[in-house]
Design goal:
The complex is a heterodimer of chains A (110) and B (114). Chain A is mainly β and 110 residues long. Chain A has strands spanning 5-7, 10-14, 19-24, 32-37, 44-49, 55-58, 61-65, 71-76, 85-92, 98-100, 104-109. Chain A is globular, with a radius of gyration of 13 Å. Helix content of chain B is 4%, strand content 55%. Chain B has one helix at residues 98-101, and strands at residues 4-7, 10-13, 19-25, 31-37, 43-50, 53-57, 64-70, 73-78, 87-94, 104-105, 109-113. The termini of chain B are far apart. Classes of the chains: A mainly beta (110), B mainly beta (114).
Chain lengths: 110, 114
């Protein structure tokens, strides 16, 4: 099994601060996805990155795919309470499956 | 219209009972999945169906039996429930190659076995 390691496991910050969370593997990904899961809901796809070195922006969220396609980061600028949730990275594992990391639980305190 | 809908949202039942969870998607996707999310929030695949055919059956006790009457529906029946079955169960759907297109998840069914 090709594991995805996410760090940190937990993160608690004040509103307005910046933060970065990471997703790493010893294997090369063909693509990588980030999801956000809010309490009581299912994960929602934020972005898919496919090219080494790729950077994608979604409002205050910046996603980066490592040059070697073995790691990815998610940076949030000026965090808001609405950013609170569980952030999961996932990679394809064959044609009919995604494998997920264990997630980073983010709490943004007002 | 909800894209992937699961029912019920909450299910509390006694050990030894049999229960079912239903899932429907209106996205026209060919592939549907069941995942289990444990208390540490780890999502682990249980089953994958493509066009009503079972594709993936991970190491899941045979008390769990999925059924796909058509490609828009994937139900999960659980026999002889055990305490360790308590978790949140998510249904999801995708186009083929979810690594490119991602999943759409339902909102989950929180199963509590007492």
């Amino acid at each position: 099994t090709q594991l995805l390691e996410q760090s940190p496991q937990f993160l608690s910050i004040q509103e307005g601060e910046n933060l970065t969370v990471y997703c790493n593997s010893s294997s090369v990904f063909s693509s990588l996805q980030w999801y956000r899961q809010e309490p009581g809901e299912g994960p929602v796809l934020l972005v898919t990155v496919v090219t080494g070195g790729e950077v994608k922006k979604l409002k205050r969220l910046t996603f980066q795919f490592g040059d070697a396609r073995k790691d990815s980061s998610l940076h949030i600028t000026a965090a808001q309470t609405g950013d609170t949730g569980l952030y999961l990275c996932a990679r394809g594992a064959g044609s009919y499956q995604l494998t997920f990391g264990k997630g980073t639980k983010l709490s943004v305190i007002p | 219209d909800t894209a992937v809908s699961q029912t019920p949202k909450y299910l509390v039942t006694q050990m030894g009972n049999d229960k079912s969870i239903k899932c429907e998607q209106n996205l026209g996707h060919d592939t549907m999945y069941w995942y289990k999310q444990d208390s540490k929030k780890f999502l682990k695949i249980m089953f994958s169906y493509n066009n009503k055919e079972l594709i993936i059956n991970e190491t899941v006790p045979n008390r769990f039996s999925p059924k796909s009457p058509d490609k828009a529906h994937l139900n999960l029946h659980i026999n002889s429930l055990e305490l360790g079955d308590s978790a949140v169960y998510f249904c999801a759907s995708s186009q083929e190659n979810p690594g490119a297109y991602g999943y759409t998840f339902g909102s989950g069914t929180r199963l509590t076995v007492v």
